[in-house]
Amino acid sequence: MKPMNKNKPNTVVIEPRILYYGNPVILLSTLNEDGTTNVSPLSSSWALGNNVIIGIGLEGKAYENMKRDPECVINIPSPELWEQVEQISHYTGKNPVPTYKQEMGYSYCKDKLEHNALTCIASYEVRPQRILECPLQLEAKVMGDRVPEHAPHFAIIETQVSKVHAHADILLEHQYIDPSKWSPLIYNFRHYFGLGERLGNNRRADV
Ligand SMILES: Cc1cc2nc3c(=O)[nH]c(=O)nc-3n(C[C@H](O)[C@H](O)[C@H](O)COP(=O)(O)O)c2cc1C
After folding, report:
1. Which of 8, 11, 120, 130 would bridge 73 by S-S if both were Cys, CB 3.0 to 4.6 A apart?
2. What residues form DSSP beta bridges with 108?
């Protein structure tokens, strides 16, 4: 890498509308009041040990569902599923649609997967169903939820993963995911990307 001159930084100060600097997309399954599954595309999530922390809008159906039934499935799509994600991106399971979402062009849809041909199947330990086509499906319980004072439209949800389902063809051996066979779908300033080539590995990488 070319050395940089700290006396002449190559930066400008900007005010971007969004700060989505590239996170994996998840399809979050939550339980509707009638026992069916709602699926919400999200990109604000990260793992801390066996916990996955999710950032979610308070006015969405997923939040309402998790407040009532504190469990979910974090389905993680691969890059080839980007169109299936985008096909349901203008729907909410919330009826009536909140005013601000109407203004953003959202409409109500109870069964979003009817519109993108993904398949729900039963989970093992939670009631929301998991999505068969997603190579990783994490069943989880909601352990905590906090609405930050400085960001009152969002909740930070803490989940604990209790069961991990992985497509057999992304595994190296039984307990290991092969990073050369698995890659997440990345949401990068509202554009979908896959991963590039492997650059190297951490000293603690499994293999
Ligand atoms: C790729 C993608 C990523 C998104 N990330 C988030 C997110 O991290 N948090 C959030 O609250 N909404 C996010 N959204 C918007 C939700 O999908 C949208 O609010 C949707 O209506 C939620 O569905 P629901 O109301 O049925 O839960 C994202 C949408 C897309 C397409």
Report:
1. 130
2. 92
Q: What is the pLDDT of residues 26-70, one digit of tens each?
A: 999 999 999 999 999 999 999 999 999 999 999 999 999 999 999
CB atoms within 10 A of CB 39: 26
Choose which residue among 40, 68, 187, 191 to substitute to test ligand 1 binding: the one with the highest number of ligand atoms within 8 A of its C-beta: 40
Give the predicted TM-score (pTM) of the model.
Answer: 0.96
200 CA to middle of ligand 1, Å?
Answer: 32
CB atoms within 10 A of CB 1: 3
Helix ranges, the chain (H): 61-68, 82-87, 99-103
Distance CA 71, CA 107 (A): 25
Q: How far is CA 116 from the centre of its chain?
A: 17
**Per-domain residue ranges of the chain:** 23-80+119-183
> Rounded to 5 degrees, what are φ and ψ at 101?
-75, -35
Cα(11)–Cα(14) distance, integer angstroms: 9
23-80+119-183 belongs to CATH 2.30.110.10:
yes
Instruction: Give ligand 1 pocket residues (Cβ under 6 A).
Output: 25, 38, 40-44, 55-57, 60-62, 85, 89, 92-94, 106, 187
CB distance 45 to 150 below 8 Å: no
